[in-house]
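Dear colleague,

Thank you for sharing your sequence with our group. We've completed the structure prediction you requested, and as agreed, I am returning the results in plain text so they can be pasted directly into your records. Please verify that the sequence below matches your submission; if there's any discrepancy, let me know and we will rerun it promptly.
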Amino acid sequence: MTRFFEKNLDHGRIDLFNNQNNDILYSHSQAPSSARKSLITVHLIEQDVGLRARIARRLVEAGFHTEIYAETNEFAAFAPKDGVILIDDANHPSGLPGMTDDLGSAGAGMAIIVFCDKPTIKGVVAAMKARAINYLSLDMSDVTLSKAIREASQEGVKAQAHQTQVANCRKLIANLSQREREVLDFLVEGESNKGIGRLLKISPRTVEIHRMKMLSKLGVKSPAAAVRIWFQSNPYF
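Please find the predicted structure tokens below.
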């Protein structure tokens, strides 16, 4: 039978060890790459020590690498870059919405799964508005838990790739001069060189010069491609 025990470390962390499989649930430490290479990392945020240990055990037995945290601000201090966040809605009186300030920008793009003992419609809706992608009951089966985490991981990868694309496009646009940016903005509105010239009170030829410089800086060859970059930099436009 697999045996787990808890050990208080000097820095106040709790590590859980699986002696049978030699698996370690690293608590905010640098896990060996060989231990994480093919595993999905689950960041478990749970205040209750006993419940944290029980859920962590289930995660390890399901084949997930697990990082454990007592509070959201502890997670924010560690600031992981990948994985799935699994968080207890009961950690805060207001549920996940009440914990978003503590999370801050940490875990941006990472998928969040919320769980609690007795889910309510109000709690589920509030969590979804606070960017959770799933909400589970504490009595969920191992199959349900594993499926939810794997699906969340896939969504997280897509979200992070999208965020990277947005950041890259914004960086390209930030390199434009003010006039080049104005030309791009008017292109997005469907204006021609003549129309842009009239609005900016410059000649169409000057507009063309600014447009060519703008395309070069964006690394594209056509106005359509430049417009696409603009929309990719403004996904919620």
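Summary note from our side: Confidence is low (pLDDT under 50) at residues 1-27.

Kind regards,
the structure core
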